[in-house]
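Worked example (supplementary).
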Amino acid sequence: MSLRDPLAQARGLGSAKDGVRHWWVQRLTAVALMLLVPWFVCLALGLIGADQFAVRATIGQPLNATLMLAFVFALFWHAQLGLQVVVEDYVHGWLEIALQIFIKFACVLAALASAIAIGRLAFSL
Amino acid sequence: MAAQQRPLSPHLQVYRPQITTVMSIMHRATGVLLALGAFALMAWLVASAGDGESFACFQSVAGSPIGKIALFAFTAALVYHFLNGIRHLLWDVGWGFEIPRVYASGYVVLALTVIITAALAFVALNAGGAA
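After joint prediction of all chains, the assembly is encoded as:
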């Protein structure tokens, strides 16, 4: 049984044209981060004062590399969704569109750079 | 047709700050700050994967007074956003909408933020010293 109003189905996904997807992905990444942040904090605390060799070896471990990859993807996805809402609320006109595009590009690039870095540590032993 | 200057409601300048509104805007502010922190995390990962020079460069920036202040701000913002985010998720599943519970959970989040941030700062200062 669907809880959706038949009228909503007839008219499509609303003015934003993506229904509740933004809201839902924001919650989904929030739950993922709720699980990954405690792990990350423990890892980061353990690496305070560590030299580069120790940092590389720790992040390069398969389990740590997997979780770090999941963490940065969830983090930059969640950050992009959150920044998008802030810009939608406070910035208007052409600056809004330019900022939205800049934020999306920056978050995707940062996530890719992080993935490359993690991959280099995970595969270089 | 010229836009009329209509009064805004609620008028934020004369609206008494309440724990609900203040914590809501704090959630946004810490979220924006943590987005910057995410880019710092990326810099750390890229520097670690790079040569010794890039890692030393990151360490000198993170270890500088401004870097330490930034790391502390990221930590405090992360703790607050994490705890208040759980509060938001509980609201999303329908728990704690009654005003007394909204206030109680708000004070719990604020108190835990101070305690956990202080504990993390204590551990961090005693762990390395160098970085």
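Two points are worth noting when inspecting this output. Residues 98 and 104 of chain A are 10 Å apart (CA to CA). The two ends of chain A are 53 Å apart (CA to CA).
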